[in-house]
């Protein structure tokens, strides 16, 4: 299973606020790395049960139908934006 995280920050502030935000982003990245390691070693298990790639109208209808029918357990991931 592939993993990805995107952290985006735009900092418009004085230097003290910028330093605070930068430290917070570094801490968040560290937390994401620790979580990824737990997923990799099997300690944490994803709740994803289906993956629907290449977003298009048909795939969106399929995903919505699963939810409406009550057949969706865990996470249904739509990929390919």
Short overview:
The chain contains 2 helices and 2 strands. With 81 residues, the protein is mainly alpha-helical.
Structural overview:
With 81 residues, the chain is mainly alpha-helical. It folds into 2 domains: 1-46, no CATH class; 47-81, no CATH class. It is built from 2 helices and 2 strands. Strands 1-2 form a two-stranded parallel ribbon. It is elongated, with a radius of gyration of 18 Å.
Major sheet attributes: 2 strands, parallel
Separation of termini?
18 Å
Helical content band: 40-55%
Order of helices and strands: HEHE
Give a count of the beta strands, DSSP E runs of length 2 or more. 2
User: What is the domain total for the residues?
Assistant: 2
Major sheet: arrangement of strands: 1-2
Low-confidence stretches: none
List the helices and strands and how they pair.
Layout: H1 15-40, E1 48-52, H2 57-68, E2 75-78
Parallel strand pairs: 1-2
Task: Give short descriptive properties of this protein.
single chain, 81 residues, mainly alpha
